[in-house]
Design goal:
about 110 residues; 7 helices; mainly alpha; elongated
Length: about 110
């Protein structure tokens, strides 16, 4: 395992740290509601990252490129690697939730059910 750690450079933003479930529950009063909010925010982050990556890679798209030119595009490879190194959207959304950076509200209909 230590051999794998030396081969890969881990950034601190990609390290999964345990979270206190009591703290997550305290924000909404319900642990499952907190997790649902985090999951929805993670989905939003994921969608925006995918759109951003797609837009950047679209600049390199050419319908007349040969197969060799597609595989040799170093700028495109570097952009893809940079996005692969980004933290997981779930980790980002959990951190935002803990730091009170996520706005959420309860639906009126849910309150009377």
């Amino acid at each position: 395992m230590s051999k794998l750690r030396r081969q890969h450079s881990y950034s601190t933003s990609n390290v999964v740290e345990p979270k206190n479930l009591v703290d997550l529950k305290a924000k909404t009063g319900n642990l499952y509601e907190s997790i649902a909010i985090i999951a929805k925010r993670a989905n939003q982050i994921n969608i925006s990252i995918k759109e951003e990556l797609h837009n950047k890679l679209e600049e390199f798209a050419s319908h007349t490129d040969s197969l060799e030119e597609i595989h040799e595009n170093k700028e495109q490879i570097e952009i893809s690697k940079a996005y692969e190194r980004m933290p997981n959207p779930s980790l980002l959304s959990t951190q935002e939730f803990i730091e009170d950076k996520v706005y959420y509200r309860k639906n009126e209909e849910d309150l009377f059910s």
